[in-house]
């Protein structure tokens, strides 16, 4: 190989090859993203179907919102619990079992007539979803290595963001045309089909043959930086989901938007979230700490603006789209940092970030539901979201300061400190 009449050194050729390989992620990353697309659709589709579900089951809209809250609680419990229970199982088998339970849970929701039964089915489905998401993050990170882990996790997480662009709006349209149970039948069928995709494309390189132990995994809990990451995961997602869970009543009852246009706004939020997630993943490989500070800062401003301008349709729609762009942009970086700061326990680190995200969703959606029936009315959820999102700056700034201090001490102490770090 030559250039300008000269011959490139082998090291240059290898460097170019490495650069090309870094531009392409392994196929398994995209297969896992398809799985998270289903997970994201089922978690968020209820937000677009709340009035229909509430009317059919004869419960209030705020109570129907518990279907979102209980799903988040199930993922809080399921991600670390299932990560521990499946520690010695191959990753591929764990992913397949999780998708099988996912499909079965949606069948129960599609045929159930009792609100209590639906809540129970959503909880069990969430346990499986938490297991899938935690293991998928680790499989994706290992497939690309540390240099591109934020980008790979951004793609995996973008599957859930794509759900807001395609899955949730289609689910809302389908729910209005054929009844709210239709989307759950579709998710059951797609979940069953995804089992075959995972079996074919995810490598058989699970944890069965590795010397792993629960004690080793639990050692990650001693990391102070990990706890800061988890706090940021909870608040950044809680702030956004507080407003998003009850965005339909805000758009129709306050901004005066027709109910038929709500799915289009949800799609706009999803497009913004997809773009923000992918951009956040790319930025996170180069400027992780700046990304985790700027994204929640902008999110707080956007939520405050929604509180103030929600009486006008056009500004509210624009702000919801921007909320999608910035609101979840730090998430792939936080997942990557969680896996990194967990040290020898990446699976538990990944699982705990999933739990933290959903803890934020559970607290945020519950608080927003209470605010919805308060004197604040339909703007209450956005007010709650503003306060929660602002709290994200505390742990993210703390992480940046700790890392700067550790970096300075490494420079002073020399190579030995770098190795220990």
**Average of the residue pLDDT scores:** 81
Total count of helical runs of at least 4 residues: 20
What is the CATH top level name?
Answer: Mainly Alpha
**Biggest sheet details:** 2 strands, antiparallel
Model regions low in confidence, pLDDT < 50 over at least 5 residues: 1-21, 410-421
Distance from N terminus to C terminus (CA atoms, Å) equals 40 Å
Tell how many strands the DSSP assignment holds: 2
CATH architecture tag: Up-down Bundle
Stated plainly, the CATH topology is called Growth Hormone, Chain: A
Total domain units: 1
Radius of gyration: 22 Å
What is the CATH superfamily label?
MFS general substrate transporter like domains
Strand order, largest beta sheet: 1-2
- Please bin the fraction of helical residues: over 70%
Order of helices and strands: EEHHHHHHHHHHHHHHHHHHHH
Class by SSE composition: mainly alpha
How big a fraction of the residues is strand? under 5%
Pfam family, one: MFS_1
Domain Major facilitator superfamily (MFS) profile: 28-407
Main location: membrane
Transmembrane segments: 27-50, 62-81, 93-113, 119-140, 152-172, 184-203, 224-247, 259-280, 292-311, 317-339, 351-369, 381-402
């Amino acid at each position: 190989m030559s250039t300008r009449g000269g011959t490139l050194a082998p090291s240059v050729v290898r460097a170019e090859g490495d650069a090309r390989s870094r531009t392409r992620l392994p196929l398994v990353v995209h297969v896992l993203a398809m799985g998270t697309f289903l997970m994201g659709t089922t978690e968020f589709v209820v937000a677009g179907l709340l009035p229909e579900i509430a009317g059919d089951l004869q419960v209030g809209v705020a109570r129907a919102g518990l279907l979102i809250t209980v799903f988040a609680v199930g993922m809080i419990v399921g991600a670390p619990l299932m990560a521990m229970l499946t520690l010695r199982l191959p990753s591929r088998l764990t992913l397949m079992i999780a998708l099988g339970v996912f499909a079965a849970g949606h069948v129960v929701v599609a045929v159930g007539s009792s609100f209590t039964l639906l809540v129970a089915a959503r909880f069990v489905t969430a346990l499986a979803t938490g297991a899938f998401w935690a293991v998928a993050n680790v499989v994706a990170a290992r497939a690309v290595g540390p240099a591109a882990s934020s980008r790979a996790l951004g793609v995996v997480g973008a599957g859930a963001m794509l759900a807001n662009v395609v899955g949730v709006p289609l689910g809302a349209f389908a729910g209005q045309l054929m009844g709210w149970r239709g989307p759950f039948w579709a998710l059951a069928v797609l979940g069953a089909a995804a089992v075959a995709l995972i079996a074919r494309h995810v490598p058989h390189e699970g944890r069965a043959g590795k010397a792993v132990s629960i004690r080793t995994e639990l050692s990650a809990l001693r990391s102070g930086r990990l706890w800061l990451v988890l706090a940021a995961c909870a608040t950044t997602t809680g702030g956004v989901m507080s407003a998003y869970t009850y965005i339909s009543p805000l758009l129709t009852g306050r901004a005066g938007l027709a109910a038929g246009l709500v799915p289009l706004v949800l799609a706009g939020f999803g497009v913004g979230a997809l773009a923000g997630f992918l951009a956040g993943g790319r930025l996170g490989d180069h400027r992780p700490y700046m990304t985790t500070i700027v994204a929640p800062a902008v999110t707080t401003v956007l939520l405050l603006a929604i509180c103030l301008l929600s009486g006008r349709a056009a500004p509210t729609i624009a702000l919801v789209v921007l909320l999608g762009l910035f609101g979840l942009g730090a998430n792939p970086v936080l997942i990557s940092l969680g896996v990194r700061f967990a040290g020898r326990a990446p699976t538990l680190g990944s699982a705990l970030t999933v739990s933290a995200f959903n803890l934020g969703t559970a607290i945020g959606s519950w608080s927003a539901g209470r605010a919805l029936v308060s004197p604040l009315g339909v703007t209450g959820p956005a007010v709650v979201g503003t306060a929660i999102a602002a709290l994200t700056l505390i742990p993210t700034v703390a992480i940046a300061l700790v890392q700067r201090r550790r970096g300075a001490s490494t420079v002073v102490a020399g190579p030995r400190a770098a190795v220990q770090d």
